[in-house]
């Protein structure tokens, strides 16, 4: 790797602390033309698809990139909003709200921004913009509560690739996971309670997480265990009995075995077991996106109802709910300790973070 360019920023200007939130990314438009480069970048990432490179190059360029863009574009078109892709809209709003929350505590010393691992705004461009605005210490928070190689690991790779081209590097902190953070667990529990206060209960609460190949778990990826931990902590906080909830994995891709049980098979089987009403929550997604709105809210709803289900509720992601922003602000503040003054307001609250 070669250094490119010259880092010519003013080292005399006051240093600021940057908080960068990231998510996966999304195509620029719901069209095959926009899907093709997006999917190419995403599916060429060796963290996402761990298959021998040469073989994968032929499969990706010869088959997948000829078929998938059209199919995915159709699905994206059903969730697209006037402001753009839901994932982008929610992530931008999360960054705005988190900026407000952190500026209330730290003032101008802090700068919050967001970037996407694939597509735009890219990690490279946002890092450059943050450094241009005086950021010298950087906290990166990928908004994946559970660590996985394809998501969190890959985000770190993108940072490292950018840094490898720079002469000067910031001080860096990186949040690897927050699957058991008390603020995050409390925000999930609150969203379930709020949903149930409005819509009533259901026979079963289904926790559906994005899947990954089972091979990654066998080779040490902690993702599966962290998903189960999140479910257990939320169930404990809500006082749920074991037969009142279940955990499963969605969004299978390709032919090999992925983490089980699969969400679609679970929802198809539940009515025959006497479960006629379900509520589904997707705690691994910090923002609603194609995989939640369409795959759960439409496709999987269809499977459940066709199999004899009577009522299907989808509990939205945490998005920019006040509980979520509070949890993210708390997570940021914990990771900023020593860089900025201790935020008395956040740490004087009861529960969860005593002693911090
Ligand atoms: C091919 C393998 C894939 C792995 C492994 C994978 C892991 C993974 N993904 C997320 C979060 C999201 N994935 C999203 C879309 C998406 N994911 C894959 C494939 C893998 N994901 C594809 C091909 C797509 C594109 C959509 C499609 O063509 O079907 C999204 C939504 C993006 C959006 O714009 O709405 C998210 C978010 C996690 C957490 C994860 C971890 C194991
Ligand atoms: Fe995915
Ligand atoms: Fe999907």
From TrEMBL:
- Which EC numbers does the record give? 4.98.1.1
Keywords on record: Cytoplasm, Heme biosynthesis, Iron, Lyase, Metal-binding, Porphyrin biosynthesis
Q: Which reaction does it catalyse?
A: heme b + 2 H(+) = protoporphyrin IX + Fe(2+); Fe-coproporphyrin III + 2 H(+) = coproporphyrin III + Fe(2+)
Molecular functions (GO terms): ferrochelatase activity; metal ion binding
User: What is the name listed in the Swiss-Prot or TrEMBL entry for this protein?
Assistant: Ferrochelatase
Q: What does this protein do?
A: Catalyzes the ferrous insertion into protoporphyrin IX.
The UniProt entry, under NCBIfam families, shows: hemH
UniProt xrefs under SUPFAM superfamilies: Chelatase (SSF53800)
The record's comment on protein family reads: Belongs to the ferrochelatase family.
Instruction: Please give an example of a GO cellular component term from this record.
Output: cytoplasm
Compartments where located: Cytoplasm
Q: In which pathway does it act?
A: Porphyrin-containing compound metabolism; protoheme biosynthesis; protoheme from protoporphyrin-IX: step 1/1
Please provide the Gene Ontology terms (biological process) for this protein. Answer: heme biosynthetic process
Does the keyword section mention Iron? yes
Identify the residues that bind Fe(2+).
210, 291
């Amino acid at each position: 790797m070669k250094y490119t360019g010259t880092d010519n920023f003013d080292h005399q200007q006051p240093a600021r602390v940057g908080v960068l939130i990231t998510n996966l990314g999304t195509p620029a438009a719901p069209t095959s033309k926009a899907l093709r480069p997006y999917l190419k970048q995403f599916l060429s990432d060796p963290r996402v698809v761990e298959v021998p490179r040469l073989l994968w190059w032929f499969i990706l360029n010869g088959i997948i990139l000829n078929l998938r863009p059209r199919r995915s574009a159709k699905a994206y078109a059903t969730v697209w909003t006037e402001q753009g892709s839901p994932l982008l809209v929610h992530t931008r709003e999360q960054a705005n709200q988190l900026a407000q929350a952190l500026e209330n505590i730290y003032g101008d010393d802090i700068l919050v921004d967001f970037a996407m691992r694939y597509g735009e705004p890219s990690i490279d461009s946002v890092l450059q913009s943050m450094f241009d605005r005086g950021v010298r210490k950087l906290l990166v928070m990928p908004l994946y509560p559970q660590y996985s190689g394809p998501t969190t690991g890959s985000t770190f790779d993108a940072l490292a690739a950018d840094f490898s081209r720079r002469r000067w590097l910031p001080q860096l902190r990186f949040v690897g996971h927050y699957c058991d953070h008390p603020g995050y667990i409390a925000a999930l529990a609150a969203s379930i309670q709020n949903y149930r206060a409005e819509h009533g209960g259901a026979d079963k609460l289904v926790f559906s997480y994005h899947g990954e190949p089972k091979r990654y778990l066998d080779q040490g990826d902690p993702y599966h265990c962290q998903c189960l931990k999140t479910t257990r902590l939320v169930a404990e906080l809500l006082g749920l009995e074991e037969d009142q909830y279940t955990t499963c994995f969605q969004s299978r891709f390709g032919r090999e075995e992925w983490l089980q049980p699969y969400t679609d098979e679970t929802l198809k089987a539940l009515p025959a077991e006497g479960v006629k009403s379900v509520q589904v929550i997707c705690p691994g997604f910090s923002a609603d996106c194609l995989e939640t709105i369409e795959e759960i809210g439409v496709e999987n709803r269809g499977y459940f109802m066709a199999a004899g289900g009577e009522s299907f509720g989808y509990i939205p992601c945490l998005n920019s709910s006040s509980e979520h922003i509070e949890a993210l602000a708390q997570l940021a503040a914990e990771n900023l300790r020593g860089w900025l003054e201790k935020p008395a307001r956040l740490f004087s609250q009861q529960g969860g973070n005593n002693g911090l």
